[in-house]
Amino acid sequence: MHSKKADSTEIEEFCRQWNNLCPVVLVPTKYYKTPADRFRALNVSAVIWANHTMRAAITAMEAVCRRVHAEESLSGVESEIASLACLFELTGEADYAAFAERFSASGALA
């Protein structure tokens, strides 16, 4: 369920009328001031916070880019960003490497 209203009144009315017929998933991009307890009281099944995390990532990337540009170096930001190990873990690098090894050894990728 998504609403473009700045408050949760539309969502609340929908949930009351829906009467838990099946799961309700919310994306509270615009009605971000509504506390999670309110969603629990409405028997909401899940809340997706992805929009705010994506927007936070954009803000962080812009800040790092401004700093790298100003300092003309990566050394100042290296200790403040995710490690390569973290990145590789999140992207499943080990799985890809194992897959490539398995199929290159068999000649399937040749």
- Basic shape: flat
**Mean pLDDT level:** 91
Please give the radius of gyration in angstroms: 22 Å
Name the helicity range: 40-55%
Tell me the number of helical segments per DSSP (H or I, 4 or more residues long). Answer: 5
**What is the terminal-to-terminal distance?**
48 Å
Adjacency order of strands in the biggest sheet: 1-2
Largest sheet, strands/sense/barrel: 2 strands, parallel
What is the number of beta strands?
2
The percentage of residues in β strands lies in under 5%
Secondary structural class: mainly alpha
SSE run:
HEHEHHH
Oligomer: single chain
Low-confidence stretches: none
Quick structural gist:
The chain is mainly α. The chain has helices spanning 9-18, 36-41, 50-71, 84-91, 93-105; strands spanning 25-26, 46-47. Helices cover 54% and strands 4% of the residues.
Blueprint (SSEs and pairs):
Layout: H1 9-18, E1 25-26, H2 36-41, E2 46-47, H3 50-71, H4 84-91, H5 93-105
Parallel strand pairs: 1-2
If you had to describe this structure to a student in words, what would you say it looks like?
54% of the residues lie in helices and 4% in strands. It is built from five helices and two strands. It has helices spanning 9-18, 36-41, 50-71, 84-91, 93-105, and strands spanning 25-26, 46-47. The chain has a two-stranded parallel ribbon. It is flat.
